[in-house]
Automatic annotation (TrEMBL):
Residues 132-223 form the Methyltransferase domain. Residues 45-58 have a biased composition (Basic and acidic residues). Residues 1-26, 45-78 are annotated as: Disordered. Transmembrane segments: none annotated. It comes from Mucor flavus. Pfam families: Methyltransf_25 (PF13649). Residues 1-16 have a biased composition (Polar residues). It comes from the Eukaryota. This is Methyltransferase domain-containing protein.
């Protein structure tokens, strides 16, 4: 089966013609549309709102995260790299299960199901011999949804943290604590289908190579892997682009790839799989039916990155953070999109 590439832009016809939001201009030029109370506070603290738009970028070093005993990250200024996996979307933070569940159902709607057409056409999930592995299963939303839809197949979810259900789950589901980077407790050639998704902020470039090598080992000859990753770079207004630049700089300092979503096929090929299908889906955050769900996910995600944002934007109070979040979320909603890439590869027979 040859490689199939599909690009799907959902309701994106008006996204490039929208007038720049007044709020974003206020960030850049400091006009009266910006919240006066917050401007006064910034002035009193001798900080300019330009730091929010990036017009005057700080030369301060990228923050470094130090682990503390309760598992929560702590920030300190350092020229060392930051371990973003300890902060962004930390499983220890409140609301992460909600974010994972919302992500699951949004992606299911976006991709018209839990797997792509190539997977549906080539794997008989109604067969009792089919074995499925979800690496980094999180709260278990995807795997339990699949197990309910296909009660004959057998499903295994693996994650570092036991956010998944321990008692109430379909009979054809099992969960394990495990780390793909440390090696999976599975025999070679075990699974007909392997899924990995949303690892961009968790994996370094080396981690990607190691994890796909391990996924390849446990995939049966003729079996498939499905990868889904979000696009980090965003064609939004200046507020959005500035935030993205800061995140991408931090990722690069940690040897993480901000453009990994565009390289999924190449990486699966390097791991030994034959690329079968590539799909890119775009959600217009002004018009798409999924806009409310995505904005909810964005809001939770920003809360998860609070400590990081305090450092990279040089803010000191919860009030400033909430105002920054409000402005960023509004900019995303008025000028932005969310894009996701999906790649399917097959292990040769």
């Amino acid at each position: 089966m040859g490689s199939k590439v599909s690009v799907n832009a959902r309701d994106s016809s008006n996204s490039t013609n929208k007038k720049r939001p007044i709020l974003a201009n206020a960030f850049k030029h400091g006009n009266n549309s910006f919240d006066k109370r917050f401007n006064d506070k910034i002035s009193a603290d001798k900080r300019s709102v330009e730091k929010l738009s990036g017009e005057k970028r700080s030369s301060a070093p990228i923050p470094r995260l130090n682990s503390i005993k309760d598992g929560e990250p702590r920030l300190s200024a350092s020229s060392s790299t930051a371990d973003t996996s300890l902060l962004c979307f930390s499983t220890f933070q409140k609301g992460q299960e909600d974010r994972m569940n919302a992500n699951h159902f949004a992606l299911k709607v976006l991709f018209d199901g839990n797997t792509t057409d190539a997977v549906k056409d080539n794997i008989d999930f109604h067969s009792s011999s089919v074995q499925v592995l979800d690496i980094g299963c999180g709260s278990g939303s995807w795997i339990m949804d699949m197990a309910t839809e296909y009660p004959s197949a057998q499903f295994t979810g693996i994650d570092q943290v036991a956010l998944f259900p321990h008692d109430i789950r379909p009979a054809n589901v099992s969960f394990r604590i495990g780390d793909v980077l440390l090696g999976l407790d599975c025999e070679d050639n075990t699974f007909d289908f392997v899924q990995m998704r949303l690892f961009s902020l968790a994996f370094t470039r080396t981690n990607w190579v190691e994890s796909l090598k391990e996924a390849y080992r446990v995939t049966k000859p003729g079996g498939y892997i499905q990868l889904i990753e979000a696009q980090i770079r965003d064609p939004g207004d200046e507020v959005v682009r500035t935030f993205v630049e800061k995140v991408c700089s931090l990722m690069e300092n940690n040897d993480q790839d901000p453009e990994v979503c565009e390289k999924l096929s190449a990486m699966t090929s390097e791991a030994g799989y034959k690329p079968i299908e590539d799909v890119r889906k775009v959600i217009n955050l002004q018009t798409d039916v999924l806009k409310t769900e995505l904005m909810y996910i964005i809001d939770i995600s920003i809360e998860s990155c609070k400590r990081l944002m305090f450092e990279i934007y040089d803010i000191e109070s919860e009030e400033e953070f909430q105002e920054l979040k409000r402005i960023y979320v509004e900019s995303r909603m008025n000028s932005s999109e969310s894009a996701f890439y999906c790649c399917v590869g097959q292990k040769p027979l």
